[in-house]
Amino acid sequence: AAGGRALRWARGRAPARGFRASPRARTAMPSWVIDRYGSNEVLRFTTDMMFPIIHFPNEVIIKVHAASLNPIDLSMRSGYGATALNMKRDPLKLKTGVTEFPMTLGRDVSGVVMECGLGVSYFKPGDEVWAAIPPWKQGTLSEFVVASGNEVSFKPKCLSHTEAAALPYVGLTAWSALNQVGGLNQSNCSGKRILILGASGGVGTFAVQLMKAWDAHVTAVCSHDASTLVKKLGADDVIDYKSGNLEEQLKALPLFDFILDNVGGSTEKWALDLLKKWSGATYVTLVTPFLINMDKLGVADGMLQTGVTVGSKTLKHLLKGVHYRWAFFMPSGPSLDEIAELVDSGKIQPVIDEVFSFSEVPKAFLKLEGGHARGKTVINVISRQ
C-alpha cells in the first residue's frame, strides 16, 4: 500500500509547497459545536468558530463539501470517552484550564484541499480528497477542517462528495477489524466462511462488500427489513435475528473461519463456539470497554482494567483453539487509497440512508439517535453535491 501511494503521489503531483496565507485572511467560520456534554439540545450553530490552522508541516486544510454522522458522534455528544480523548488531546497536561469546548463533532469528510503544510508533497490545493478525522481532533461539521496528510486520500473518482462522505470512518473501522487485526486480505479469503453480526449498519454493510470483493463466503445477521439490502450487497446467507433463537439458527450452519461482531453484549458469550477450533479461526469485536473503563476508573486504573480483561479473554479462548481480538477505528490515508481503488472498480459502494442539509444537523442527529438506519446519515455542507 505504501509503495502504491508513493507512486500515486509522484504521478503528476505538485512539489512540496508551504502554507500560503490567503489574501483575504479569515479568522472564523460556520460550524456546529457543543459547549457541554448532553443530548441534542447541546448542539449549537455558530459563525464564529476558530478557523483551522496548520500547526505541523504534514497537515492540510480541507474545505468540507460533505460530512456524515456515526454512532461515535452520538456517544461523544454525551461525553463518552472524554477521559481518554482529552488525554490524547493534551497528554502532558500543558494546557492548564483549557477545555475541549467548543467541540465540533463529525468524523467523515469529502472535500477539496485548500492549503498544504511545508512537508506535504502528495496533495495540492484543489485536489478532491476524503478522510476520517480521529475523534480527538476537531470534527467535520464545519466549513473547513485540518487533517494530517497521512489521514487523507484522493476521493474515488466515481463518487460525488455526498456519496464519498458516507464511507471513510466505517470503511476504516471495518478495514482495521478485518485486515489489520483479523489478518484477512485479498489473497487469503477465498472460500473462507465469514460471519458478520450487525450487518445492516455502516460498518456491517461495508464489511459485507469487502469480504465479497475478497471472494469469501459471507453469512450476515440483520433484521428482516434489512435483508434485501444485505443480499443486494452480496451476502450469501442472511439470518434474521428476530425470526427465532439466533444462537440456534447459527449453530445449525457449518462452522466459521472468522466472526466480526458489531453488536457485542450477550453475543460474545456464545458466538466464539461457532468458530472452527484449532484452525486459526478468529473472533473480532468492535464493542469494547476501553473508553468506558477510562471514564469510570480514570486513565491508569482504566488502562489496567482493560489490559487485564483483554488478556484474560484472549488466553481463555486461545486455550479453546480460537483467537479473540478487539479492534478500533484507525485513521489511515494509505488504507483509504486501497478502499478508493475498490470503490472505483465497482466492488464497494456507499450505502446512504438519508441526506440532510447543513442547517439540519440537529435533525440528522435525531435520525441517527432513532436507530434502525440502513446505511449512513450524510450532511451536505455545500448544497448540490
Automatic annotation (TrEMBL):
Q: Where in the numbering of this chain does the Enoyl reductase (ER) domain appear?
A: 38-379
Q: Which Pfam family, any one of them, does this sequence belong to?
A: ADH_zinc_N_2
The record's annotation in PROSITE patterns points to: QOR_ZETA_CRYSTAL
Give the molecular function GO annotations: nucleotide binding; oxidoreductase activity; zinc ion binding
List the GO cellular component terms: mitochondrial matrix; mitochondrial outer membrane
> What keywords were assigned to this record?
Acetylation, Membrane, Mitochondrion, Mitochondrion outer membrane, NADP, Neurogenesis, Nucleotide-binding, Oxidoreductase, Transit peptide, Ubiquinone biosynthesis
Q: Which InterPro entries match?
A: ADH-like_N, ER, GroES-like_sf, NAD(P)-bd_dom_sf, Quin_OxRdtase/zeta-crystal_CS, RTN4IP1, YIM1/Zinc_Alcohol_DH_Fams
Q: What is this protein called?
A: NAD(P)H oxidoreductase RTN4IP1, mitochondrial
- According to its UniProt entry, this protein's organism is Copsychus sechellarum
**This protein's encoding gene:** Rtn4ip1
